[in-house]
Amino acid sequence: MDGTSTRATAEAHSAEAQHADAAGERHRTPRSRRSTLSRERVLAAALRLVDADGVEALSMRRLGKALDRDPMQLYRYAPSKDALLDGIVELVLSRLEVPQAGDGDWAEVLRRTAHDFRELALAHPNVVPLLVTRPLATPLALRPLGTLRPLEKLLDLFITAGFGKREALHAYRLYMGFLHGHVLNELQERVLDPDETDDLLRLGLHRLPLREFPRIRALAAELATYDGSRELDEGLTVVLAGLGKQEAAG
Q1: CATH says 100-189+226-249 is which class?
Q2: How far is CA 175 from CA 111, 152, 168, 206, 241, in A?
Q3: pLDDT tens track for 125-162
Q4: Phi, psi (5° rounding) for residue 58?
């Protein structure tokens, strides 16, 4: 083989090797560009799944697919589905800010916090049942710390305002119980047929027998014009007035 042929053969092999290397690099690129896993990323992906398809649709398998990871890798960040659900609650509640009261106006802080809580609930309606029920499944001291911070801040708000320790805990329970009840009620206000102009038909109340449910059917207009923010304010006025009497008596 002459020099020219040898050089041509070498150049051909070199080109093939470069092509193979480039192909291999292209093959490896998607995996190498994946973001590093963290608890925050895992919980954020889990929240997106719950927002889209509900709590029942959440599984380690689906979560692993969403993150492009082996599901077994996720147990490092959430050792069980219960831990994953607690983490979702922690993530959502971490977005709830409880500001400090200025000039002793604790009632205004509670009103603002209530509206912020409502906005969170409306943004993540599928998480609301978790916000209400997860505390029933986990003892206080075993819950993720992030889920306890609103409790700590609200207790501090009440005690700083002059409530006794026991009264502050009672006030917290009354306040949060009201908020949970309100958002659950608001999420139940579903319209059957948005395009229908008649309130009875729009809400589907025409299906109810008139003799058995006269009061409900008579409230069709009020039910059709439900305003969650206004209802929240009206309920808060009652709750805060009661807490104000308790604070003054203490």
Answers
A1: mainly alpha
A2: 10, 14, 10, 36, 12
A3: 999 999 998 887 778 888 889 899 999 999 999 999 99
A4: -80, 125
